[in-house]
Amino acid sequence: MPKISALLSVVFLSLLFKLGDGIRCYVCRSDELPDCGDPFNPGRVPSSECDNFFTQQTFTCFKATQYAAGQYVTVRGCAPFTTDVFPGNMQKGMVGSYWKGTNVMSLCDFANCNSAVSNKVTWMGVLVLTLAVFKLY
């Protein structure tokens, strides 16, 4: 009985501790793995803890799609921003999609969020829209 209670105590305490503060992202390229493109097949694409790649935490994943060599290529992975260069709140503030013609880069901030296009509204987008509306009137 003491072994069972000790085991239950260890299990309970392990549930209280968060093992890592990094984010988990899908990591792939559609020119190497067709399931990485759109439509996306998450069952056949690897997902990785981003803090395994950096000495500092990163809080964002990315998905970039670009037209190259006659086809669209999609790349998904951990954003290369660390807390040394970009504080966590700044990384979270950069969440959104950035377009240049038909090419797009999207940043997101929750586990495996780079699986699809995000329609999440950012505070910066709301601020810009609000200022534009007030300027019209």
Q: Could you characterize the architecture of this molecule?
A:
- A hairpin with a 2-residue loop joins strand 4 and strand 5.
- By secondary structure, the chain is of the alpha+beta class.
- The chain is globular.
- The chain is 26% helix and 26% strand.
- About 10% of the residues have low confidence.
- The strands form two sheets. Strands 2-5-4-7-6 form a five-stranded antiparallel beta sheet, with no helix packed on it. Strands 1-3 form a two-stranded antiparallel ribbon.
Task: Record keyword descriptors for this entry.
single chain; 137 residues; alpha+beta; five-stranded antiparallel beta sheet; two-stranded antiparallel ribbon
Q: What is the residue-averaged pLDDT?
A: 77
Portion in beta strands: 25-35%
Give the SSE string.
HEEEEEHEEH
In what order do the strands lie side by side in the largest sheet?
A: 2-5-4-7-6
Residues in helices, as a percent range: 25-40%
Give me the secondary-structure category.
alpha+beta
Distance between the termini: 74 Å
| Total DSSP E strands | 7
Catalogue the unreliable spans: 6-19
Compute the gyration radius: what is it?
A: 19 Å
What composes the largest sheet? Answer: 5 strands, antiparallel
In DSSP terms (H or I, runs of 4 or more residues), the helix count works out at 3
- What spatial form do the alpha-carbon principal axes imply? globular
